[in-house]
Amino acid sequence: MDPAALTALTLASFVAYGAVTLVIWGLAKVGRLNTRTYMAPLIFGNTGNLGLPLALFAFGEAGLSNAIVVFAVMAILSFTFGIWLVSGEGALGKVIREPLVAATLLGALFLWQG
């Protein structure tokens, strides 16, 4: 994958998840819903088990590589910000113990280093 396209897609994914977070937060507040209960499941959809095979089927190898980038962003956010949302407080210890976070960050580092 082209490094410029990878950077653009990563940034776009973070921006999109940020926008979705704001919309869901606003809807939860208007609907007087418990944000700890509703926000994480509504923000972080099933982009792995469902999204990756669907991207491969619909768009081929190029679509799968793009979907993996979006999935990696979702995984980082889900296992950091998502844990904070559900716990209702800072949960740095829980984040550090999540192997998916470390593996995704190491994979990004290795990809960046070639």
Compute the number of helices.
Answer: 6
**What is the domain total for the residues?**
1
Mean pLDDT: 87
Order of helices and strands: HHHHHH
Q: What are the low-pLDDT stretches, counting only 5+ consecutive residues below 50? A: none
The tally of beta strands, per DSSP, is: 0
> What is the 3D form?
globular
Largest sheet: none
Tell me the strand percentage band. Answer: under 5%
Tell me the structural class: mainly alpha
Radius of gyration, in angstroms, nearest whole number: 15 Å
User: What is the percent of helical residues?
Assistant: over 70%
First-last Cα distance: 12 Å
Structure description:
The structure is a single chain. 81% of the residues lie in helices and 0% in strands. It has one domain (3-113). With 114 residues, the protein is mainly α. The protein contains six helices and no strands.
SSE inventory with pairings:
Layout: H1 3-30, H2 35-43, H3 51-78, H4 81-87, H5 92-96, H6 99-113
Helix pairs in contact: 1-2, 1-3, 2-4
Keywords:
114 residues; mainly alpha; 81% helix; globular
Summarize the structure.
This protein is mainly α and 114 residues long. It has 6 helices and no strands. It has one domain.
